[in-house]
Each structure stands twice: as structure tokens, then as C-alpha cells.
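Quick check before the chapter quiz. The format below is the same one you will see on the exam, so make sure you can read both the input and the output lines.
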Amino acid sequence: MLRTILVGLVFFLVTSADPAAGQEATPVWEYLGQRAARLAAQLPPLPESTDAWDKQRAELAGRLGTELGLLEREPMQASVLGSQSAGDLVIEEVAFHWAESVFACGTVIRRQQADGPQPAVVVTPDWLGHYTFRAYRSFVEHLARDGMLVLVIDDPRTGRRQASYAGLYATAAAAGMPTVGIQVFDALRALDYLQTRADVDAAKIGIAGLGEGALRAYLSAALEPRFQFVIAVAGTTTYQTLAQAVAAEQATANPSAFLAGILSWTDMDRLAACVVPRPILIAGGAGRWPAAGGDAVLNTLRTVYGLYQAEDRIRVLPGEAVDDMTPYADAVASWLKTEVLPALKNSTAAPAACSQPAELDFRVWGYLQRRIESKVASRHNEPLTQAAWTAHRQAIVAWLRPIVGVDSLSPLDDKSLATEESGDVVIERLALGVDEAFRCPAVLVRPAAGGEKCAGVVLSHDDRQSYAAARITEAARRLAAAGYWVIVPEHASVHPQSSQPLADAETPSFYGDEASRLYGPADAVGRPPLAWRIAESLAAFRHLAGRGQVDAGQIVMAGAGLGGVDASLAALLDERIAGVAAVDVTTWRDWSLNVAPRELHFFHLMPYLPSLLTVTDLDCVYAAIAPRPSVIVRLTDGWPRSGFEQVAARAVAVYGLLQAEDALQTLGPRDLTDEREAAAPAGVRRQLLAAARTLVPTPPTPGLVGTLDELKSRATVDSASGLIWLVAEMSGYEQEFAGDGYRLQTWSFFNDNRDAQKGRSVTPLIFRKQGEGYELTGIGKARTNAGTGLQTFEFEPAAGTDVVGDGHYFGWYDGDAAGPPNAGVVEFGPAPDARMTILTGDGQMGGQRVELGKSYRTQAEFPRQYSIMAVSKKP
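Here is the expected output.
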């Protein structure tokens, strides 16, 4: 609590000193924590009888299964992939059927010699866990030596499964099966598999988990009564306290630990109590999370178990170990041998049926993509009639309203904090009332001269921008100078000058996972990040509509990237919004197939709402603006073009269906010209073109990667040796070479560190995108760093070609491709609007080998700006 107060005090002092920082706007973190407390306080009291609890337990389990998106459990197929002896133990790598053609995998640890079927434990891991990790290995081997057969499940983002961390979270949530649902289903299928083994006593199977795995152990046991006991190590907490702690930076948590909207209907203490009257062992309490959460769960467990006169089935092991199960191994083994297993009857049933799989596919990612394809295909194959479209649009709006919470928000009054005149415009700093206890910072830019009522524009910035971003500042001033009132709601952002910062300037994340801290608490309290942006944009619209100098019938929404998504969704919820200009659009299907696989970290927000695809896709969202005017713009360097084409096709069909073809414009980045704007009818259509023009950057020069003004001294060079880097994005622009028929001529980098890195080599590389990989097509001559600042060299192919164009990317190798690797040379600094990719050929990061024609895949991505560029020209 003290830390929360201090965080709020620091924010107040900073914002009071700098009006641009959003005076009197509540930090989003504080709001989320307060909302978690309010929702928890509104939960009904615990039942006072076993009958009432049994009824509530059935309701909770049914709702939980639905919210987790659990699948039908098909007949089991399984295979032992490999087996080895380890002293008195046998270690087996196993694969067991998950769903459809996909398999989960894990490690079975058992004794070499066993007298008959053994009791068993399923271990669901902590974040990115695997049996070989120190946190699990000694613990599970101890249990195995004591006569337990243990199955440790591989996390879906590790081992053979290898799904991207942030991309999986977003894709699974949008598809209606959140990551926590995938992991709970892992545990349920692991149980199904164990019941097929002749060496397992099917009546004596329990579940254990560490950290976030402990939460999933409770959830799994609440759903599956065949789990006969639960072992929760250093992870017993409530979602209320976890959301509050993460928001206040008192704890870290993978967003996958959370379940969207859970605090609106229950909390973890009640779900854990669904295990009653089966034995529960709690070791290490809440672990690295606040103790209050563990205490709350324990209190509820004691109350509910008391109804069944089973309080003695709760065992509590105090301890301070938070990332290791080992210290609790002796006590857990003793508890099982003396109190739990003797009370369970042996199974007399034969093992369940199990067949051998014909082939193994471990890509849960592939399952989700096929699920998305199926949903989208079925929707797009439907005949488009006006009645069918009207019904679908109504269904979208009906689903969206509670997701955004428009009917439950209690907005505070807006506040004007400061006003200044700057040339021909006036700038106002505002705090927009969005909900009780929350005001969103905003900036209003308007013409200095008075006169007739003006048209208005709500300008929603992309997720790595803020009003202070040069592109947004310039856009707002240009529109105001043209006579429009422009309001920019300051959405939460990783931009360094954001008034709702996701990043902590004092403790920046190495990986750039700042947005991960927002996703978990926001989802848990029913305010997912994109939904919250929509609510803020609606508040900005209401403010403009309430200003007497603004024509309320001529207020439009405009945004680029994620800003275009939330602007379009906001327009569905308020018919008074006159039109929408969306720059850089896509479908969720296209994003999940082409972008999500490389989203390894949460260094920005993503264009989805939980369970979006169970209702619609974004192409229908953009089309649903019809018949109001709309401008949809493709960026050369934005999301993949295929997504834009689907959006455009759907919009054209719907606008045509409603006989409003003239109200829609689908444009490329070079189509927004002075002539087009001047030729547009006066009013909303011209207004939308004006807004879109300010958001579309000057297309990058064909054949160029990076810019000369970015070649400057920066704070850091890479310390790892032998990394292969690919330049993915700089200054907010994708860095694919544009055009055809170019040859890479020169490349440059900046290093002014003199002797510190002098003599190190760096080798320029050319890659061609091939599916999810990058084929190395050209290796330039290695160059030696002089440490003198800007250094420019000819590419001079040492192997392969210097040809570049569409689908080609520039990169480099830290070292001489024909010699030894070394640490980095090119200087870099953190940048929220840049993305640099480390490529790998063997799964490692450093010490890579450079081989012409080899395909490399993404190993990691970082929000960094490197001082490097490449120039190609046509012969």
C-alpha cells in the first residue's frame, strides 16, 4: 500500500511540474488497482451450507470452462519419444494428444523398479518452464524416488512447441481460447494420458504447480474431479491482489496468468475452493506476489472446507523459496505418503484406450491459426444480403458495448488544465473524465482565430506514439491551422514522452516488455487495452461535441495503426461520429498469420479484443461504419498488404450493398494528394482526407534502409558475440527494401568509441523473406571498425548477390563471416518506434554461423534504434 501511495505521489509531483505530462489525470495503473478492489468487493458472500456451495461450485466450474474456451477431449493418442536411465530413475520424453492434429509434450520421471501401478502427479510449470530447469528437477526427481510417477508438461512457448510469447497471448485471446486456457487444457490432457498408462494408478493422480503453475493447478482441479489432490508452490493468490500488485510494480507477472474479465464474476479464492474436500497443500504462500493474496485464498479455503468438516485436509508449509520447488520436496513427499495416498483407494479399472499417432505436430500455434481460418472462412462464405449484414452489424455492436463498458462507465467532469497560444493555434491541456476515479490526459489544438463553428477531429495516436511524437504534433497543428478543432487523447503508450507511460524511464525493460504489465491487470478487471483506448476516444469525442465552437455534426475520428482500429470501433458505438479515417488497416486473421508469430515480447499493444473472432473480424468493423463516410489507407510500410485488401474488399461490398459507394475511399499511400482533397465535396469527406493526409508519412525512398540523420552517437553496443541482426523497423517504418532492380552499393554505421571497440569486425548481409524465415542471399565484405564515428563502405559481395528489392532486408553479423565472431560494433539506444531482430539458425543467439542460402528464423526482437543504414541504386 505504501508503495502505491508513493507511486501516486511521484506521479503527482512530476505532472504538476510539467503541464504536458497530464496534470490531474489519474495514472492508469492506479485506476486498474482501484477497479480490481471495487469488483472484488461486489462479489456475493460465500455460501453458508454445503448444498449452496455445491450449487455455486457447479456454476463456477461451468463458467470457468466457458471462459477458458476448453475444447472437446478426443480419444487419446500418445508416444514415448525417447527414454534414458538416470541412476535409479527413468526419464521419458513423451507426446500426448492435445486436439485435432496437435500434440502436447512433456517429461515423465519414474522409478526404474516399481511394484505395480504408481500414484502420479501432473506438474504444470511456471512461466516458460521445462523439466530441466532447476526450479523443478530436484523436486520431481525426489517425488519419483519416493514412488510417484511425475509428468512435467512443457510450456507451450518452450521446447518442441515454441510459440511466440506475446503473439500467442494475443492470438489465443482473440480466437476465444486464452493462453491460460491452453495451459489448463494441457493439464487436463496430461491427466487423460496418464490414465492410459499401465504403470499409473488412475485413482491416485494429483496436480502440482509452481508460481503461475500453481494458479493453473487450482483451475485444473476445479474443473476435473479426477485430480485427487493439489500441490500449490509459491503461487497462491487472488486475481485482485495480483492485478493490484502488478499495476503498482510490486510484482511481475506474465499476462498469461490472468483470465480476461474474471473479477466481474469470481476470484481465485473461490475457484481454489472448488477443490473441496480433496486434499490441498500450500507451500510458500503467495511466493513472489503479495502475501495478502495468499491469506485471502487460505481464509476462503478454510471457510469452505469447514462446511464439509474437512479443514484437516488443508496443509500449509511456510517458506521463503519463490522460484524453486526443491526446498519443499521432503515435506510434500511425507504429506503424500502419510496423509493423502493411504486415504485413496486403488484403481481396479483397466488403463484407458490409447493409440499410437501416425505423425506428431506440436504447434499449438498452427491449431489456433487453423481455428482462425475456419471462423473467417465460414463468415466470408455467407451470402451478403442487406438483412444478413444488418443482423451481423447489430451483433457486433451488442457484443462490443459490454466489452468497452460504455453502459457501466461513470465519467467524471472534464478539466481544462492549461492553455497557451502558439502562433496561429491555441493548445489546451485537458483531463477527460472517462470513468469514476479516472481522467485521461488529452491535448486540444484549435485555431487561434474565432468565427463560425468549426469541424472537429479526434486524432488517435498509434500505440508507440503520444501527442509529443513529432508526427502527431505536426498532424494536430496542420489540421488546426486549416480550421479544425483537434483533440488527441493520450492513450497509454511506450513513447518516452507519453502522459500515460507504460515504460518506467528509471528501470527500462531489457526486452521491452512494458506493455505486459498493462495486459494482465487490464484484462482481469474487464478493461482490455484496446477497449480502454476506445473509451478514451469516446470521451474525447464527447468533449469536442460539448464545446460550443464545434459543429457536433462534423466531428470525425482518425488514427493510424492501432489508433485507426480504436477510432473505427469507437465509431460503431456512437452514431454521432460523422466518419472515420483509418490509416494502415488490417484484419485480425492477417495479423495473426503474418505478424503475431514474430511478436516475442509485449513492447507495444496489439489490435485485438478478447474473443473478437468469435463474433467478427476487423474487416467487418471497418465496413460497419457504412453508410457514413470512410477513408481507408494502406501504408507501404505498415501491416501486410493482404490484410488491407481484405478490409477494402469487405468495405466495398458493404458500402455497395447500402448504396453508399461514394462515401468510401480505399487508397494507397501515394493517393492522398492536394488535388484529391481539393476535389472532394466540402464537409466530412474532405475533412477525412485532410486528417488522413496528416497521418500518412512520406513513403520511404525505394532501395533505402535507415536514414542519414539516424547515424549518430548512441549509448551502447552489443556485448554478445556473433549475433546476426536484421533491420526490421526504424522510426516507425518497416525497413523492407522497396521496388525492384536495385543493387546494394554502400552501407554505413556509427561508432565513435575509439579504442573501446576498435578493430572489431562487422559483416553486411542481405536477407530475403521466405514464409516465417529469412534466406541469406548476399554476404558483403567484412569491415573493421576504426572507432572514429561515421564509417561508410562499399558492399562488395563476398558471396551471393547484391540484388535487393521487395521482400529483401538488410542485416549484419557481429564478426567476420569468414573468421571469428566478436562483440558488437554498431551503436544503439532504446526506441519504442524501432524493431531490431536477432536471427538464429540453431536456436541460440550468439555464436551464429553465416551460411549463404541458409534460412534463419527470428530468435528475439528489441525496440532499439541502431546507427546503421544501407543504400542501393539501380544500375
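If your answer matched, good. The longest strand covers residues 89-99.
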